[in-house]
């Protein structure tokens, strides 16, 4: 059924799974498929999957967030990876996270990512009151406003908890991108048996490593068997494949 967009046009629902994606531009070399303007590195971009005319898979057309208003989106939930977008924060100390996956922030290069780190000397439970500090929303709220979408409730403590997770993951990601490079990130992933593709850019690799550093190793995917699970806020999804051409679609949400 066609869906109404914020500019009054209609867009047919794509038959492709999870047709819309959002992420930060890894470089400033690409251009928007709609306005042809530059997609600036570090700024939010929205992608739409299209069936490729050259191969059996699909391609992604990337546009500025403001150029995605004609896609007929009605919820942030329709944008795959929206929980990877950063939350700005204030009065929040650097520390440890309260999750079921515990690990130390102080991962050294080439150090194994164990579930229970012997170097963690801070009691996680004692830090819980420090972690749920006040937040102001930035990229996510702006994206919701630009695309006229429903935004999460900032007063919801569960959302704040997810915001905490994303904030620290983003911080660790930036640190990894500054201190390391793609080769080092691939080495860390390989040594820990974590799935990745050689073509993935350094920011994506850094995000995966940061996730495992902060929350510990996730188990193998129960569907495809690969160690390819990655947490995004409240959601855990698989990035692996059943075969060379069949992608695993396993995901679940914490409640």
TrEMBL record:
GO CC terms, sorted: nucleus
Residue ranges occupied by any PARP-type domain in the UniProt entry: 20-67
Zinc-finger among keywords: yes
Superkingdom, taxonomy of origin: Eukaryota
UniProt GO molecular function: DNA binding; zinc ion binding
Major subcellular location class: nucleus
Location in the cell: Nucleus
Keywords for the protein's UniProt record, in alphabetical order: Metal-binding, Nucleus, Zinc, Zinc-finger
Gene3D superfamilies reported in the protein's UniProt record: 3.90.640.80, Zinc finger, PARP-type
Protein name from the UniProt record: PARP-type domain-containing protein
Species for this entry: Perkinsus olseni (Perkinsus atlanticus)
